[in-house]
Amino acid sequence: MDNLIWIFISALLVNNFVLAYFLGLCPFLGVSGRLETSFRLGLATTFVLVITAICSWFLNTYILPHAPYLRLISFIVVIASTVQFIEMAIKKLSPALFKALGIFLPLITTNCAILGLAIFATNKGYGFTEGLVFALGAGAGFTLAMVLMAGIREEAELSDIPALIQGTAMNLIIAGILSMAFMGFAGLFSSG
Amino acid sequence: MAREQSSYESFIKGLWRENPVFVQVLGMCPMLAVTNTALNSLVMGLATLFVLMGSSFLVASLKHLIPKQVRISLYIIIIATFVTIADYTILALLPAVHKELGAFIPLIVANCMILGRQEAFASRHGVRMAVVDAAGMSAGFMFALLALGGVRELLGNGSLFGVDLFGPGFEPWVIMILPPGGFITLGLLLLLFNWIAARKRAFLAEVAATEREML
């Protein structure tokens, strides 16, 4: 149990997917303009991450021991079809949500956080429960980073910023400062 | 002659005017994660070069056989195949670098630049042009990787490609090889790139204005 809590906290804060591993940067830099959208995208990504963890556990346990070189291709095929499935389900169940996230759902497929989770969980040899907790932590960490970024960017819109630095350059520097702040959480482990 | 020039242009545009990192802001994940030393950047750049050229070649050759509805999935499978080859090759030739790059070699698949080139270029052009375009884009990507990796290793470790440059008196800026250094260095490089582009625009506008006055 202790172990599971550490996996969650590590993925949420210390080894935050966005700010420490640089995974999922495309949506982090591209879609983080509005707080509301960022939060929803974070939730959608968390959902896909959890399903990815389940799929990759299944593949790792039953299929890949026989053909390790197919690891990458099978991960991608499974993840892509999962996202397709979620897209159809959301379209049917909640047209409003579909409208809000619309074009971003296919983007989640090419989100490296998704594939990164599958590969990290495999490399660390996580079992089913550990993988699930890891996915939840990573998703929560992604959502946290997105929401923080969107909050700062909404504030920045009201300030007088030189035209030259506006856009990606500014976002990257903000991300750097956030990342520095998150490095402070590394102390959690040595004391624990 | 016109044909020659257009392939040269399509190579050069990837290097500067349509640089995948500085202008299109694509391929950020591998870009930032592996550029803490110049050597890692170089290996990552070469792996991307191999994957992009291979998949552009295959997509351009097979473009008449690929059904439109499933093209994206097929592109991804083609890319994943080349990435698997690159992954196992690096593991065999440079095990130390492979260990350091870790999960980020398989993650080349998720580099949006590669898929973007298949959809936007290779599937619409001949084999030769597709390979030239892929080479240009990879060269631009490698240029950005080396610029970032060079700056980060130089300031964070006082060395370049593992060769010590500043001697023992240099106090390394450890933050540069840690994640925040990656974000901030890339932000500053983008700023520099924007500044150069803005100056060039201003210069061209001035030239145009002077020309109008002369007339």
Describe this structure in words.
The complex is a heterodimer of chains A (192) and B (215). By secondary structure, chain A is mostly helical. Chain A has a domain of 109 residues. Chain A is 77% helix and 0% strand. Chain A is built from 10 helices and no strands. Chain A is globular and about 60 Å long. The model of chain A has no long low-confidence stretch (mean pLDDT 84). Chain B has 215 residues and is an all-alpha fold. Chain B has one domain. Chain B is 70% helix and 2% strand. Chain B contains 8 helices and 2 strands. A two-stranded antiparallel ribbon of chain B has the order 1-2. In chain B, a hairpin with a 2-residue loop joins strand 1 and strand 2. Chain B starts with a helix and ends with a helix. The mean pLDDT of chain B is 86. Classes of the chains: A mainly alpha (192), B mainly alpha (215).
Instruction: Estimate the global geometry of chain A from the Cα principal axes.
Output: globular
Q: What is the terminal separation of chain A in angstroms? A: 14 Å
Sheet with the most strands, sense and barrel status of chain B: 2 strands, antiparallel
How would you describe the shape of chain B? flat
Strand runs of chain A, count: 0
Mean pLDDT over the residues of chain B: 86
Pattern of helices and strands of chain B: HHHHHHHEEH
Mean pLDDT of chain A: 84
Order of helices and strands of chain A: HHHHHHHHHH
Instruction: Please give the oligomerization state of what you see.
Output: heterodimer
In the predicted model, the low-confidence regions of chain A spanning at least 5 consecutive residues are: none
Helix content of chain B: over 70%
Please report the distance between the alpha carbons of the first and last residues of chain B: 34 Å
Name the pair of protein chains with the most residues at their interface, and give those residue counts. A-B, 39 and 41 residues
Percentage beta strand of chain B: under 5%
Transmembrane segments (chain A): 6-29, 41-63, 69-90, 97-120, 132-152, 164-189
Enzyme class (chain A): translocase
Family (chain A): Belongs to the NqrDE/RnfAE family.
Keywords (chain A): Cell inner membrane, Cell membrane, Electron transport, Membrane, Translocase, Transmembrane, Transmembrane helix, Transport
